[in-house]
Design brief:
This protein folds into 2 domains: 3-155, Orthogonal Bundle (DNAb Helicase, Chain A); 204-460, P-loop containing nucleotide triphosphate hydrolases (Rossmann fold), CATH 3.40.50. The radius of gyration is 27 Å and the shape is elongated. It has helices at 18-30, 32-38, 50-66, 72-85, 89-104, 111-139, 143-155, 215-228, 242-254, 258-261, 265-272, 292-304, 329-347, 377-381, 437-442, 445-460; strands at 204-209, 233-237, 280-284, 311-315, 351-356, 384-389, 399-407, 414-421, 426-429, 435-436. The longest helix is centred in the N-terminal third of the chain and has 29 residues, at 111-139. By secondary structure, it is α/β, with parallel strands linked by helices.
């Protein structure tokens, strides 16, 4: 049946078939930008499959109330009570079967075609309905209303750029799941007053440190903790090999020094059988060869194979290749960070990366934003910037300082004494009573070192 010959009252997606209709709903869950367009022109009863109409109805109602689309996990919790109370056992079984199949194949290859076709179809249907109303208005001489009606019909289904209506959309500001942060594993840093749970979706986090201080170990620690939380991680490395990075994860997750991991392979593999971890993909690119588009293409390839990341680690952004060439390196680096931030927002995922500190930072007590090598503009782009500082004399005992240099989520300008175990890529905050930068500068240096030494002895058990 041709789309122009559809009978009034007939579900409008029926003639496209079951697979097409299921992919329409899959598009709603996976592409919120597209969902914000089609929600203006699509109705749940366009589906002739009852379970899709039911899911779409709940999906749209959540958006109408909170002005944000629910994730798969949230949608399941939304419909759970309805399904338990409802008498329709067949509907419940159909929904469970569909959600299981969608999880097994999260991104079928022809989804883009389905989204384009269904949006175009719904827009034409909305315009057709507006024309029918316009005929009735003309018959009653409501000409001005006809003009307004047709203007609205033309605009619906376009990219939603109206913005956040402060009072009308107030509910969306108070939905905690909206940010869905990925914890760092450092409880005080993840606290409500600082990171509010960790690095949020769509946010870019940067760790700054001089060479050899611990940037890569920080990134491994972030990825390892995410795995322990059951999250999927993609770790991009531009200096170390994939297997070298893998050994660092082995040592962190199993608590075995990296140099000993290969000698206790059976023990390591046996430990993993008792752990409930997410999945980890480690991808190596030669230094200076990967652009942000390279990363995007690789993630798309992973999604086609059923792997959907929850966290991206990039080690590290300063040695990526810019998509454009500038006369000045700092402009190229700033563009790389801008593109990474855009990628985080586009994928709605948190991204952790690292930045090289300049030469002056090597002997500094605290590494600040001014120490970000080549481009201060990098700090302007990032949502969170933390720095690690360790003088050469402090490396032997693992002591150092963690400084929250920038934080859009909460407090910044605060300093913590830390212990870095480079043999296991583990980082621990020693004293959760933080100091402001000004307080740390006025504190006597000898007393500060004694405190760090004392805390380190408590952690390691050395005497």
């Amino acid at each position: 049946m041709h789309s122009n010959e559809i009978n009034v009252g007939e579900p409008l997606f029926r003639h496209y078939g079951k697979r097409f209709q299921e992919q329409v709903f899959q598009g709603l869950l996976t592409d919120h930008a597209w969902a914000s367009q089609i929600i203006e022109v699509m109705k749940p009863d366009y589906f002739d499959l009852k379970y899709l109409a039911f899911l779409t109805d709940r999906y749209f109602k959540h958006f109408e109330k909170y002005k944000c689309f629910p994730t798969m996990q949230l949608l399941v919790s939304i419909i759970k009570d309805d399904l338990q109370q409802g008498p329709d056992v067949i509907l419940k079984d159909q929904i469970i079967d569909f959600l299981h199949r969608m999880r097994a194949n999260p991104d079928p290859g022809d989804l883009n075609y389905v989204k384009e076709k269904s949006l175009d179809f719904c827009k034409r249907q909305a315009f057709r309905e507006a024309l029918e109303k316009a005929v009735e208005m003309v018959a009653t001489d409501k000409f001005e209303s006809v003009v307004d009606l047709m203007k609205k019909a033309v605009s619906v289904g376009m990219a939603n750029t109206t913005g956040h209506d402060f009072f009308e959309d107030a509910e969306s500001r108070f939905v905690k799941i909206n940010r869905n942060p990925c914890p760092t594993g450092l409880d005080v840093l993840d606290g409500k007053d600082i990171l509010r749970g960790g690095l949020g979706r769509g946010e870019l986090g940067v760790v700054v440190a001089p060479t050899g201080v611990g940037k890569s170990h920080w990134l491994t620690a972030m990825g390892a903790h995410a795995l322990k939380m059951g999250k999927n991680v993609v770790h991009y490395t531009f200096e170390l090999t994939e297997t070298s990075v893998g050994l660092r994860y082995d040592s962190n997750l199993c608590g075995i020094p990296a140099n000993d991991v290969c000698d206790v392979k059976d023990e390591v593999l046996e430990r993993y059988k008792t752990m409930d971890l997410g999945r980890l993909i480690i991808k190596e690119y030669p230094t200076g060869s990967a652009t942000v588009q390279t990363i995007r293409s690789h993630i798309e390839k992973l999604s086609l194979k059923g792997f959907v990341p929850n966290l991206i680690i990039i080690d590290y952004a300063d040695i990526m290749r810019s998509s454009r060439t500038f006369d000045s390196l700092r402009h190229e680096l700033k563009l790389v960070y801008e593109e990474l931030r855009n990628l985080a927002m586009e994928l709605n995922l948190p991204i952790w990366t690292a930045s090289q500190a300049n030469r002056e930072a090597s002997g500094a007590e605290v590494v600040g934003l001014e120490n970000m090598s080549e481009a201060y503009g990098k700090a302007m782009v990032a949502d969170v910037v933390v720095s690690i500082s360790r003088k050469p004399s402090e490396k032997a005992d693992g002591s150092g300082r963690l400084f929250v240099a920038k934080n859009r989520a909460g407090r910044d300008g605060i300093l913590f004494p830390i212990h870095i175990d480079t043999s296991q890529s583990r980082i621990k905050i020693l004293d959760e009573s933080s100091l402001t930068l000004s307080e740390s500068m006025t504190q006597d240096n000898n007393d500060a070192k004694k405190l760090l030494r004392k805390k380190w002895l408590e952690v390691t058990g050395n005497k």
